[in-house]
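Incident log, support desk, overnight shift.

02:14 A customer reports that sequence design results differ from what the structure should imply. Their input is reproduced verbatim below. On-call engineer (initials T.W.) acknowledged and began investigating.
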C-alpha cells in the first residue's frame, strides 16, 4: 500500500502526519483571521497529501468558517433538509445530537455522492464534544484502490456506479428525518436528487492518482453487471474499505476544525455517545470539476 504521508517543509503552517495512510494535524495558523493566499495554498497542498487535516483549538464563528471555506472553491447555501441551517449563516449546517436526537450518521459515506455535483471538501467545526465517544473515522480511497489486485482493477476499469440518495434515507433508522414538519424538506431533497452516475474509479486531476469512488450508503449498483454480480462486487469493496490500515479514527476536542476531500475518502461518525450532547457546524465546498460517467 502506498502511503501518502511524508514530512514537507511549509513556510506558513506546520503539518504533522498522524499516521502513514491518512490524516495530519495543522498548527501555527489562526483561522479566526483572514488567510493570505500563500497559507491557503499550503493548506490545500496538505489536504491533497493527507486527505483529512485537523486544526486543533480554533475559536471561530460560523461566518469565519464560511470565509475560510471560500479559499478552496464555491461555498453553497445549504438547504434545510437532513441537517438544520444555522441562523447566522445560510452556508452552515448544524449537526446536533443529544438525548432527544440520537446520532444516526454511523454509516460509511462520501458527502453528497448522490448529487450530480458532489461535495468537494467538507469542513466541520467541533462546538461541543461528549466527554467520551463521538469519534469520526475516515478511509483513504487511494489506498483502498491501490491495494486491489491488478485483475480486480481491470474488472473495475471504466465501470460506472449508480448513487442514490434514497438508498440511505429510505432506511428505517432514518425514518425520524421524515416525520412532522421535516417531511417537506426531505421530500424536496428526494425530488432534487434522482439517482446519478459516477465512475467507480476516479483519477484526481491534481495528483494524477486513482481512487475508488463507491460508498455503502449511496452506491446502489455497478452498471453492466447482473444484479447479483453487482451486489457481490459492491459487498466485497465495502468490506475491503474497512481495512484498518486505510483508516484514521480521530478523537475530537472542542474547537477542532477538520477539512476532508470527499473525492478520495469515505467517513463514518461513530454513534456511541447517546444521550450525550455533540454539536458540529458544517460547511461544504464545491469545485468546478464534476466527475464524468
Ligand atoms: Fe458526512
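02:41 Re-run completed on a clean worker. Output:
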Amino acid at each position: 500500500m502506498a502511503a501518502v504521508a511524508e514530512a514537507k517543509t511549509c513556510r506558513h503552517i506546520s503539518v504533522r502526519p498522524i499516521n502513514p495512510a491518512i490524516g495530519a494535524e495543522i498548527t501555527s495558523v489562526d483561522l479566526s483571521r483572514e488567510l493570505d493566499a500563500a497559507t491557503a495554498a499550503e493548506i490545500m497542498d496538505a489536504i491533497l497529501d493527507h486527505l483529512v487535516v485537523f486544526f486543533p483549538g480554533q475559536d471561530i464563528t460560523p461566518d469565519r468558517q464560511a470565509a475560510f471555506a471560500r479559499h478552496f472553491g464555491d461555498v453553497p447555501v445549504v438547504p434545510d433538509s437532513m441537517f438544520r441551517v444555522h441562523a447566522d449563516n445560510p452556508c452552515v449546517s448544524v449537526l446536533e445530537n443529544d438525548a432527544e436526537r440520537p446520532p444516526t450518521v454511523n454509516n460509511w459515506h462520501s458527502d453528497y455522492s448522490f448529487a450530480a455535483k458532489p461535495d468537494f471538501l467538507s469542513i466541520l467545526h467541533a462546538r461541543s464534544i461528549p466527554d467520551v465517544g463521538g469519534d469520526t473515522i475516515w478511509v483513504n480511497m487511494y489506498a483502498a484502490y491501490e491495494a486491489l489486485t491488478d485483475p480486480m482493477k481491470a474488472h473495475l476499469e471504466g465501470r460506472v456506479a449508480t448513487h442514490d440518495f434514497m438508498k440511505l434515507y429510505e432506511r428505517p433508522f432514518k425514518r425520524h428525518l421524515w416525520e412532522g414538519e421535516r417531511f417537506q424538506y426531505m421530500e424536496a431533497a428526494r425530488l432534487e436528487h434522482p439517482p446519478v452516475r459516477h465512475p467507480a474509479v476516479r483519477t484526481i486531476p491534481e495528483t494524477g492518482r486513482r481512487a475508488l469512488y463507491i460508498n455503502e450508503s449511496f452506491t446502489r449498483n455497478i452498471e453492466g453487471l447482473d444484479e447479483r454480480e453487482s451486489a457481490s462486487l459492491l459487498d466485497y469493496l465495502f468490506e475491503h474499505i474497512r481495512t484498518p490500515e486505510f483508516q484514521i479514527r480521530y478523537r475530537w476536542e472542542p474547537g477542532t476544525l477538520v477539512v476532508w476531500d470527499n473525492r478520495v475518502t469515505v467517513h463514518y461518525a461513530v454513534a456511541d455517545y447517546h444521550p450525550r450532547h455533540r454539536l458540529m457546524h458544517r460547511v461544504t465546498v464545491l469545485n468546478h470539476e464534476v466527475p464524468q460517467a
